[in-house]
Amino acid sequence: MTQVVTRFAPSPTGYLHIGGARTALFNWLYARGRGGKFLLRIEDTDRARSTPEATAAILQGMSWLGLDHDGEVISQFERADRHREVALALLEKGAAYKCFATQEEIEAFREKAREEKRSTLFQSPWRDADPATHPDAPYVIRLKTAQDGETVIEDEVQGTVKIKNDQLDDMILLRSDGTPVYMLAVVVDDYDMGVTHVIRGDDHLNNAARQMGIYTAMGWDLPVYAHIPLIHGPDGKKLSKRHGALGVEEYQAMGYPAAGMRNYLARLGWSHGDDEFFTDDQAKEWFDLDGIGKSPARFDFKKLENLCGQQIAIADDAALLQEIEAYLTASGGATLGSAQKDGLLRGMYCLKERAKTFPELLEKAHFILADTPLEIEPKAAKNLDTVSRGILDALTPHLQNASWTRDDLEAVLNRFAEDQGTKFGKLAGPMRAALAGRAATPSVFDMMLVLGREETMSRLAQAAAAGDAGSN
């Protein structure tokens, strides 16, 4: 059985678009789930718009998403000699011809066609001309496209698509300066790279009909085509800046975990029963082309956040910390010190719960990351009146010899509250303020366990002493 080979072939004219990221993901999943190869080609033939910075942004976006590719990154521009070689081979076979028509002649042909209300598709007078009549003038090389019948694309997503051949022109393969066109380069590169499955946006569907002519003329096997619908915004219109972030790197800088983005993008236009949340291994095992829908998918931030929260909850703590550090770098945030990293690792078990993004997780981790003495926010400060501070002062000795486990701490604090003629709930507000400087925090017991005995008692004592300082 032939090994599956897929490819992602972006043009380096900007960032890695969210739609491109999904295309890359689909190709990656299809290949990885079948022990195949996933290749990366940069389609940099448009020299005016292609930049090294855009190439770097695409590679960075794929790296963040965890979409590893096999082999070296291939530059389409660097393969121009090979593309020319194929164009000349087609010319030699009689499957292509030299066209000497000037731009003025082509425009005059179209103007006349418009006046006569017929197709403006250019029909070159040089298609069947005797080579002896060729002038010594600049020419392009055009593919001889069949003029009758139809081209049939058997597409794994769109089904059987038929395009009448009289709707297809004799497309240019080589420009008059000898440079190959994109449409030729794509076919030659896919063939030479051994691509078996071309999975790409359905805006390329018409291109497939034209590209198939090159495969047929060269006697090459066609790849399997799967043209996937585009992504729309929540309003059903094509995804654009007005709907929010378009570049993958923006999602990293907003603090979405890569696993959550992979999970969400996989579900965007593809389904496996009712499964919404799944791991990478499940996605590789389940992903197939027949699960891709024909209609455009709608981007939904709430679904993205929900899946991101579930992925954070099951993530490995050390890997999560590493990704949080990468997020802080991408967003221009502070660098974490070793003590802060240790604290985050200790507290990850309680920080991961219900955090949908890294900013939410780090907000919960304020008690770990904040410098001491803590700055108490106004809402929390209301819980630290004279009486509350006195209670915290009285509590400290009871913690001195407590066994630092959740059960023992709960027992000590409940007993202390009872001795004070109150319930633990009344202690929670002052303790949150003392331990985190905030009114909304993880549970008091989780904070005490993460901070440890020494730091917990130090913070309680500082809160109590602040009361004494205020009364002098």
From TrEMBL:
| Native organism taxonomy | Bacteria, Pseudomonadati, Pseudomonadota, Alphaproteobacteria, Rhodobacterales
Residue ranges constituting the Aminoacyl-tRNA synthetase class I anticodon-binding domain according to the UniProt record: 324-463
Primary location group: cytoplasm
UniProt protein name: Glutamate--tRNA ligase
* Job of this protein: Catalyzes the attachment of glutamate to tRNA(Glu) in a two-step reaction: glutamate is first activated by ATP to form Glu-AMP and then transferred to the acceptor end of tRNA(Glu).
What CDD domains does the annotation carry? GluRS_core
Q: Which Gene3D superfamilies match?
A: 1.10.10.350, HUPs
Q: Which domain of life is it from?
A: Bacteria
The UniProt keyword set, sorted, is: Aminoacyl-tRNA synthetase, ATP-binding, Cytoplasm, Ligase, Nucleotide-binding, Protein biosynthesis
Q: Which InterPro entries match?
A: aa-tRNA-synth_I_cd-bd, aa-tRNA-synth_I_codon-bd_sub2, aa-tRNA-synth_I_CS, aa_tRNA-synth_I_cd-bd_sf, Glu-tRNA-ligase_bac/mito, Glu/Gln-tRNA-synth, Glu/Gln-tRNA-synth_Ib_cat-dom, GluQ/Sye
Q: Which family does it belong to?
A: Belongs to the class-I aminoacyl-tRNA synthetase family. Glutamate--tRNA ligase type 1 subfamily.
E.C. designation(s): 6.1.1.17
The species is Tropicibacter naphthalenivorans
- Keyword Translocase recorded: no
